[in-house]
Amino acid sequence: MIIGKVIGTVVSTRKNEMLIGSKFMLVQHLENGNLVEKYIVAVDSVGAGIGETVLIALGSAARLALDNREAPVDATIVGIVD
After folding, report:
1. In this predicted structure, what is the pLDDT of residue 50?
2. pLDDT at 68 over 90
3. 25, 9 in Cβ contact below 8 A?
4. How far is residue 74's CA from residue 58's CA, in Å, rounded to a whole number?
5. CA 75, 27, 16: angle at the middle one, nearest 5?
């Protein structure tokens, strides 16, 4: 898992049919409480918004967090940090 801050959304005009209806978010990594120049695009499974700090699951755990476990996903937002 990684922690990051949502800095924007990603709009896709074409995507895999298993991802239709999914919201993609651009997340900047947080390391030791500081933003670093690393970014990741993640599927939002919890309704996160821009400016929120989130937890991201990677790899097969990212697919398991979604309703469709066959979706081609490598990063999923699984939590919002208070």
Report:
1. 97
2. no
3. yes
4. 5
5. 45
